[in-house]
Amino acid sequence: MTDFSKWKTALSCKKFDGAAFDSYKKFGIELIEISPRREDYPALNWAEIKSESERTGVKIWSVHLPFSRDINISLPDRKKREDTVCLHSDYMQKAAEAGARVAVIHPSSEPIDERERGLYLKNAKASLKVLADRAQELGLILAVENLPRTCLCRDSEETAQILKSDDRLRFCFDVNHLLIDSHARFLERFASKLVTLHISDYDFKDERHALPGCGKIDWRELVLLLEKADYSGPFLYEVNLDGRADGEMPFPPTSVCDIRKNHMNIKSFTGNGRRL
After folding, report:
1. pTM, whole model, 2 decimals?
2. Which residues, at least 6 apart from 261, have a Cβ–Cβ distance to it below 8 Å?
3. Under a CB-based contact definition with an 8 Å cutoff, are residues 216 and 272 in contact?
């Protein structure tokens, strides 16, 4: 059984200049995930990212491969699907050269018509095999992320079908994407495949990416489940630092300085704003 206080504090990031890396170092972020907006990917300076990582000691743990309705490995349109695989292969190589160990991938975008779901699932499996080959060449772990709503991997059964399609595939557990199955069910089925996390809070109605303690997740219960599953990767936050002032679940903005403190206090957040 692992201990949450020993998991490295990590953050999914959109800024990679010297000032950003200095801030990560100052506030206890030990590892980062490269996850800019998809339109910012072409302008990334991978050499600078590697240099700043080495200078500050803030290591690059993962790259979150870009996604959109058209950047999608499961599309029926063969050319768009193959273009996405080529794009992902290129970014995987650049991330590996910069020091990343894990590539996180969405198995689809949305919406997916239920009548075409089988086709999307078949396409995703085929694309993932090609990308698993490439990841193996690069020394990367390819981690499939669970997704909400009509996306693929919206429940544990569909996630199992995809993960079983290639033994090299691993699992990225986004804990604010579950709208059907429970956290316990996912960890029961995929503890042995789990290599990384996306940590944020939500209201069980839709993804929100709020700082833990703002939503309804019982973090004491979830962290205990992760410890019992012997999770040993980083505690990687994927949160909306700008907050949300309107909508169904408003929550305040936060900053990089809050992440490490939140991690160390995680077992005190018991859902619905309750604290031990």
Report:
1. 0.97
2. none
3. yes
109 falls within a domain: yes
Number of domains the chain is built from: 1
Calculate mean pLDDT across residues 39-57.
98
Determine, yes or no, domain membership for 272.
no
Amino acid at 141: I
pLDDT, one tens digit per residue, over 68-104 is: 999 999 999 999 999 999 999 999 999 999 999 999 9
CB 195 within 8 A of CB 233: yes
- What is the extent of the structural domain holding 56? 7-210+230-239
Among 25, 70, 20, which Cα is nearest to 45's?
A: 20
CATH number at residue 28: 3.20.20.150
Consecutive H or E run containing 153: none
CA 108 – CA 99 distance, rounded (Å)? 26
Q: Give the pLDDT band of residue 275 (cuts 50, 70, 90).
A: low
Tell the residue number behind the tokens 């700082």, with chain if given. Answer: 211
Question: What's the CA gap between 110 and 148, in Å, rounded?
Answer: 10
159 C-beta neighbours (distance < 10 Å), count: 24
What is the per-residue DSSP string for 185-232? Answer: HHHHHHGGGEEEEEB-B--SSS---BPTTSSS--HHHHHHHHHHTT--
Would you state the pLDDT for residue 276?
A: 54
Q: For the CA atoms of the chain, what is the radius of gyration? A: 18
